[in-house]
Design goal:
The structure is a homodimer of 144-residue chains. The first copy, chain A, is of the alpha/beta class. In chain A, 22% of the residues lie in helices and 33% in strands. The longest helix of chain A is centred in the middle third of the chain and has 14 residues, at 79-92. In chain A, the strands form two sheets. Chain A has a four-stranded mixed beta sheet. Chain A folds into two domains: 1-64, Roll (2,3-Dihydroxybiphenyl 1,2-Dioxygenase, domain 1); 67-137, 2,3-Dihydroxybiphenyl 1,2-Dioxygenase, domain 1 (Roll), CATH 3.10.180.10. Chain A has helices at residues 15-24, 50-56, 79-92; strands at 7-12, 29-31, 35-40, 43-49, 70-75, 95-102, 108-113, 119-124. Chain A contains three helices and eight strands. The interface between A and B is large, with 78 and 78 residues. Chains A, B: This is Glyoxalase.
Chain lengths: 144, 144
């Protein structure tokens, strides 16, 4: 198995609401057959019916509970960008679950959930520099 | 907000078990402070305590239920690769939740869950070609 992810699919209960939320944050994608595809670096972020996604995975959809067990992180280039993004999230109808602050590791981070409860961490972490295209190359942590 | 994901963090209940599972599938990463980081294309796949991840997101960890609402897809270059990967998943202790078959859209797909229940879809989908480095560029679905 090569070390990569092709798609990250977020199960949603209301596709229009979910699409509107990400569009309000500036994302632009394509909607096809009740599915929204966003190009996200070298992979795709997809919005799709939570029930259909569960079925497609051979799983019972079950109840939507608080924390689904996965968090997506979106790192930005400055603390000011973290603040600006959180303001946009609130305007778009997301919920800030952790106000921006310097965390125990020493970088500025925050978190929100989208309208379906999917967790995003928004951080400015100079320890993991962003390339021009937004990609990262993990540092050699052993040398830190 | 730029359209990209920096990290995908999977909350796990037993870090050694989770790390061993992905290593058995051929992933190689770095463990630092009870966290495992894998380079995955231009982003990082991270394994971290589910409780700590929830706390870091400002959320209650809550119960681990069946479907967490997110699926990761890993597309490969042939149907034979799908079959080989599923065999490796079973050897590594994952659970096949959808046997490989041609789906309604017409491509060969399957799904499994890792030891913590995180869902992965494994597919050979010629409609979304993989670049040499494993990245994808979404097609213009309007032209399909």
């Amino acid at each position: 198995m090569e070390q990569r992810i092709t798609l990250v699919t977020l199960g949603v209960s209301d596709l229009a609401r979910a699409k509107g939320f990400y569009e309000a944050l500036g994302w632009r994608g394509q909607e096809v057959e009740e599915t929204v595809f966003f190009q996200a670096g070298g992979l795709g972020l997809v919005l799709w019916s939570r029930d259909k996604l569960a079925e497609d995975c051979g799983l019972e959809p079950g109840p939507t509970v608080g924390f689904g067990g996965i968090a997506l992180a979106h790192n930005v280039r400055s603390e000011a960008e973290v603040d600006a993004l959180l303001a946009a999230v609130e305007r778009a109808g997301g919920t800030i679950t952790k106000p921006a602050a310097v965390n125990a590791i020493g970088f500025y981070s925050s978190a929100f959930v989208d309208p379906d409860g999917h967790a995003w961490e928004i951080a400015h972490n100079p320890g993991i520099p962003l390339a021009e295209d937004g990609s990262i190359t993990l540092p050699d942590f052993g040398s830190l």
